[in-house]
Amino acid sequence: MKDATPSVLLIYTGGTIGMIANPETGALENFNFAHLLKHVPELKRFNYRISSHPFDPPIDSSDMEPLHWARLAGIIAEHYEMYDGFVILHGTDTMAYTASALSFMLENLSKPVILTGSQLPIGTLRTDGKENLITAIEIAAAKNSDGTATVPEVCIFFENHLMRGNRTTKINAENFNAFRSFNYPVLAKAGIHIKYEPNLIRKADGKKPLIAHRLFDTSVVILTLFPGIEERIVTSVLHVPGLKAVVLKTFGSGNAPQKEWFIRQLKEATERGIVIVNITQCTSGGVEMERYETGMHLLEAGVISGYDSTPECAVTKLMFLLGHGLTNKEIRQKMNSSLAGEITKR
């Protein structure tokens, strides 16, 4: 008979939340995660079975790459039947990329995978790390009355807000409200109580087994448009050897220059098999390529809509699809489909 005590696996990848100041030098150092309860004694008040799985050595989030995403997916798959939920402690700089990638990698996920971190080390007096960690663990262990997970998806929890991972972007390097989900409402808010929004949370089929994908192809580039962008720059980007996909960050609702050379370059690239996905530079909203003539010209050139994808989501989704050897047509179709709640199609 399975132990009824809620169980959570903490996976420490690195980042500010897991650091303490050296009392002699004042320099930040990674602390031994076995001493977690010493730094966060409040965790003892949970009637949970909490285990930890630290990366050794820890990875600065600026160095996170697809091989580390694959490692995370592997750890979760290996321990999937042993725990009710998972909390990933991660540096904030690339947390939204990791959350987006995992949302595609963990097919048939029916348990919470909550990423969190902090702006201040967990050992400092005013740290935001303790509250983020404690609440993330509570969410990872939360269950509905029928025993199913309350939040069976990949999320980021930061400063009292639980957000769908593939909808988040880091928006602040200074304040505690480091992340925002501009195009999808928060899944829960933590105050005196944690208020969940069941209608916004993805439904899971617990009968389907978890499939952990680990393949990526990083032959992707982000091309951000700006007034005065030169033809030679666009040409050089679109002719990078081995390039397979481009995230094109356009103006407003998906608009771009109508210069003959620009449209021609895009059309020639798509005809060579390069997948070009149009997303907006705006933090909120999405592209509507049929709305203006400029967007229509992009469609005619073979550019596809990224709808309201975040840049982090668009890049990781392309890497994920390219890594699985799909045809150009299949990739284009899946980029126009919601695989894990990452886009809203109007």
TrEMBL record:
Top-level division of the source organism's lineage: Bacteria
SUPFAM superfamilies: Glutaminase/Asparaginase
InterPro entries, per the entry: AsnA_fam (IPR006033), Asp/glu_Ase-like_sf (IPR036152), Asparaginase/glutaminase-like (IPR006034), Asparaginase/glutaminase_AS1 (IPR020827), Asparaginase/glutaminase_AS2 (IPR027475), Asparaginase_C (IPR040919), L-asparaginase_C (IPR027473), L-asparaginase_I (IPR041725)
Binding annotation for substrate: S61, T92, D93
Domain L-asparaginase N-terminal span(s) in chain numbering: 8-199
Gene3D superfamilies cross-referenced by the UniProt entry: 3.40.50.40, L-asparaginase, N-terminal domain
A Pfam entry, by short name: Asparaginase_C
UniProt-listed CDD domains: L-asparaginase_I
Catalytic class of the enzyme: hydrolase
Residue span, Asparaginase/glutaminase C-terminal domain: 220-335
Biological processes per GO annotation: aspartate family amino acid metabolic process
Keywords: Hydrolase
Active site, renumbered: T16, T92
EC numbers for this chain: 3.5.1.1
GO molecular function: asparaginase activity
Family membership: Belongs to the asparaginase 1 family.
The name this protein goes by in its record: asparaginase
